[in-house]
Amino acid sequence: MVMDNMSSTSSGKGLLHLNDVEAGLSKDNDDLDNHLDLDVDPSDPFDITHTKNVPPETLRRWRQAALVLNACRRFRYTLDLKKEEEKEQRKRMIRAHAQVIRAALLFKLAGEIQIVSGAPVALPVDGGDYAVGLERLASMTRDHKLSLLEQYGGVKGLSGLLSTNLEKGINEDEAELSNRRNAFGSNTYPRKKWRSFWMFLWEAWQDLTLIILIIAAAVSLGLGIKTEGLKEGWYDGGSIFFAVLLVILVTATSDYRQSLQFQNLNEEKRNIQLEVIRSGRTVKVSIYDLVVGDVVPLKIGDQVPADGILITGHSLAIDESSMTGESKIVHKNKKEPFLMSGCKVADGFGTMLVTGVGINTEWGLLMASISEDTGEETPLQVRLNGVATFIGIVGLSVAVSVLAVLLARYFTGNTEDPDGTTQFIKGSTKFDDAFNDVVKIFTIAVTIVVVAVPEGLPLAVTLTLAYSMRKMMADKALASLQVRRLSACETMGSATTICSDKTGTLTLNEMTVVEAIVGKKEINPPADSSQLHPSVVSLLSEGVAQNSTGNVFLPKDGGNVEISGSPTEKAILSWATKLGMKFDAIRSESTILHVFPFNSEKKRGGVAVRQSDAEVYIHWKGAAELVLAACSGYLDSNGCLQSMNEDKEFFEAAIDKMAASSLRCVVLAYRLCEQEKVPTDEESCTDWVLPEDNLVLLAIVGIKDPCRPGVKDAVKICMDAGVKVRMVTGDNIQTAKAIALECGILSSAKDVTEPIIIEGRVFRALPEKEREQMAKKITVMGRSSPNDKLLLVQALRKGGDVVAVTGDGTNDAPALHEADIGLSMGIQGTEVAKESSDIIILDDNFSSVVKVVRWGRSVYANIQKFIQFQLTVNVAALVINVVAAISSGDVPLNSVQLLWVNLIMDTLGALALATEPPTDNLMHRSPVGRREPLITNIMWRNLLIQALYQVSVLLVLNFSGLTILGLEDDNDREHAYKVKNSLIFNAFVMCQIFNEFNARKPEEINCFEGVTKNYLFMGIIGFTLTLQIIIIEFLGKFTSTVRLGWQLWLVSVGIGIISWPLAIVGKLIPVPTTPVSTFFVKPFRLCRKPRDA
Question: Where in this chain does the entry annotate a coiled-coil region (predicted)?
Answer without folding.
Answer: none
